[in-house]
């Protein structure tokens, strides 16, 4: 006897709740401890799917996925009204699960296991589409109806989820489930690329269902109502494909390395730190994309290298790396720009293996935090007279290319040669004019904005945009300076020793004020967005 639709929907709420709670919970635990590893997380996803199929398969069919319910309806295997009710129930279960994780771990996209892509948008959409197509093929192959529960179904579907998570997890987090992506996105207010995770699985599941029914041919389930449903689903599939292609082209971010609402951390040494306080790179990014509401955090540290040696202060190099990770966690970025090389170039030949290992370690740490990584090549400074500087710089750049290729990372190669008018007196760093032009070129590369160059290779756009400082641009730079100052005191307070270290007994009670910088910084970001919108 089949349960009522209401009871079956309750089962779908429970099943999806457990799915998202355990699956995303595994991602959270691995992010915090590193103990599960990617293989462990993928295995957990497969096991929870298998377990819930055994638990509620004979009650509701254990869809736990709007794409599956919609695909079942599209091939005439499930009533449309029931599918609509299932979709609502599944989304409710995912939202409740994400809310539960938020209560325990805090509400942000990383801690809630939100889906993020390390691929370009079009490639990420294709991965989710293909993975869900395969999943739906397997689901239909092992099921004979919505009430079916068998050991074959549980093992086959669970194994499929695990295997696809092994492959696609590092690329798109292997969602294949709109509800699984919707829950963490809503609870963390992280809607970047959510349209991708809503459309690609649905289209993929419908495609998988249609392909399976085409191969299998007609059977006793091909009623007149089912035939009509399949015709409608074909139209829906076509509309989704057109809409997805249109969204990719209209979003203005298909080829961009940055995305709307990104939190960008710029990690480097003296070259990066001296970009403050009136950060020309942030001004260029915010001006070109005022509607994207980017949050920029400068994590440059004077004298630092990829080994984090300057951050160790009076401690070990390992403490320096730990300090850099703490800085990164304070910034909580979705994407990190790694910009080292100027300091390392002078002695790169002697330390090449260690430098590459340290860079790979930093990349691994960022990936564990679900942070996209963009590598930037260093800029040659004519004032650096170290004997092996130029050769070391070229070798460092080649190492970046090798790492980017091996790790599938984005690499921005900056072929900028500053003139004497764009350098400080010792010609070791860009001056304000130099940083301004470099910032514009880098912003164009990150946002895929074309530039026009004159015969000397210098960007005319820079001159056109910034030949004079308008009052509006001055307000933007002042807002950026205020935000950078607030964040400086948040992540690297000048009185750190007295608040957190061996002299905290003197003023340690004031340490609680550090966390109070967060709403101040967020308000400063809003002021930047408002100023950028007025440009």
What do you see in this structure?
Helix content is 62%, strand content 5%. The protein has helices spanning 5-33, 37-60, 66-74, 80-105, 121-142, 151-172, 178-188, 194-216, 224-250, 270-273, 280-288, 317-331, 348-368, 389-407, 432-447, 460-466, 471-491, 496-499, 504-507, 512-515, 517-533; strands at 263-268, 295-300, 335-339, 372-376, 410-412. It has a five-stranded parallel sheet with strand order 2-1-3-4-5, sandwiched between helices. The radius of gyration is 26 Å and the shape is elongated. It folds into two domains: 5-217 and 227-245, Glycerol uptake facilitator protein (Up-down Bundle), CATH 1.20.1080.10; 263-449, SGNH hydrolase (Rossmann fold, 3-Layer(aba) Sandwich), CATH 3.40.50. Helix 2 (37-60) crosses helix 6 (151-172). 43% of the residues are buried. The chain has 535 residues and is mostly helical. Residues 450-471 are annotated as: Disordered.
Number of helices: 21
For CATH, the homologous superfamily of the largest domain is named as: Glycerol uptake facilitator protein
Radius of gyration over C-alpha positions, nearest whole angstrom: 26 Å
Strand content: under 5%
Rounded to the nearest angstrom, the distance between the terminal CA atoms is: 66 Å
Count of the domains: 2
Structural classification: mainly alpha
CATH C-level of the largest domain:
Mainly Alpha
Task: Examine the secondary-structure arrangement and name the CATH architecture of the largest domain.
Answer: Up-down Bundle
Low-confidence stretches: 145-149, 237-254, 450-468
Strand order of the largest sheet: 2-1-3-4-5
Mean pLDDT across all residues, rounded? 82
Helix content: 55-70%
Sheet bearing the most strands, described? 5 strands, parallel
């Amino acid at each position: 006897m089949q349960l009522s639709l209401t009871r079956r929907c309750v089962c779908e709420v429970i099943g999806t709740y457990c799915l998202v709670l355990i699956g995303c919970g595994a991602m959270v635990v691995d992010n915090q401890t590193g103990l599960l590893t990617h293989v462990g997380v993928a295995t957990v996803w497969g096991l929870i799917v298998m377990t819930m199929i055994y638990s509620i398969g004979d009650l509701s069919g254990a869809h736990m996925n709007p794409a599956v319910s919609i695909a079942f309806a599209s091939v005439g295997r499930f009533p449309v009204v029931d599918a609509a009710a299932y979709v609502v129930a599944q989304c409710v279960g995912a939202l409740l699960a994400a809310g539960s994780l938020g209560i325990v771990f805090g509400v942000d996209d990383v801690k809630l296991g939100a889906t993020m892509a390390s691929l370009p948008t079009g490639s990420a959409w294709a991965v989710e589409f293909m993975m869900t197509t395969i999943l739906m093929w397997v689901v239909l192959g092992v099921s004979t109806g919505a009430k079916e529960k068998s050991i074959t179904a549980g093992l086959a579907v669970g194994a499929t989820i695990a295997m696809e998570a092994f492959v696609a997890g590092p690329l798109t987090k292997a969602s294949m489930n709109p509800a699984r992506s919707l829950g963490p996105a809503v609870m963390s207010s992280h809607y970047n690329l959510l349209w991708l995770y809503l459309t690609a699985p649905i289209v993929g599941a419908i495609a998988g269902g249609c392909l399976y029914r085409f191969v299998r041919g007609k059977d006793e389930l091909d009623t007149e109502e089912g035939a009509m449903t399949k015709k409608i689903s074909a139209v829906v599939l076509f509309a989704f494909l057109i809409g997805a292609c249109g969204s990719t082209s209209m979003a203005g971010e298909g080829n961009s390395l940055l995305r709307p609402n990104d939190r960008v951390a710029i990690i480097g040494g003296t070259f990066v730190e001296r970009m403050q306080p009136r950060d020309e790179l942030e001004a260029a990014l915010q001006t070109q994309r005022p509607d994207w509401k980017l949050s920029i955090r400068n994590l440059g540290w004077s004298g630092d290298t990829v080994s984090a040696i300057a951050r160790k202060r009076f401690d070990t190099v390992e403490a320096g790396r730990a300090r850099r990770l703490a800085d990164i966690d304070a910034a909580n970025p979705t994407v990190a720009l790694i910009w080292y090389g100027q300091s390392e170039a002078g002695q790169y030949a002697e330390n090449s293996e260690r430098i590459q290992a340290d860079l790979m370690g930093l990349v691994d740490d960022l990936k564990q935090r679900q942070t996209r990584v963009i590598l930037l090549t260093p800029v040659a400074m004519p004032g650096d007279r170290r004997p092996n500087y130029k050769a070391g710089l070229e070798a460092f750049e080649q190492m970046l290319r090798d790492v980017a290729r091996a790790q599938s990372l984005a690499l921005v190669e900056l072929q900028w040669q500053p003139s004497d008018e764009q350098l400080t007196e010792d010609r070791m760093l860009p001056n304000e004019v130099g940083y301004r032009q470099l910032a514009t070129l880098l912003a164009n590369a990150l946002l895929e904005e074309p530039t026009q160059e004159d015969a000397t290779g210098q960007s005319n756009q820079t001159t056109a945009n910034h030949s004079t400082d308008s009052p509006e641009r001055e307000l933007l730079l002042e807002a950026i300076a205020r935000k950078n100052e607030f964040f400086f005191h948040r992540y690297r307070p000048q009185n750190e020793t007295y608040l957190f270290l061996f002299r905290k007994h003197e003023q340690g009670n004031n340490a609680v004020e550090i966390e109070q910088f967060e709403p101040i910084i967020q308000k400063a970001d809003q002021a930047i967005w408002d100023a950028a919108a007025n440009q």
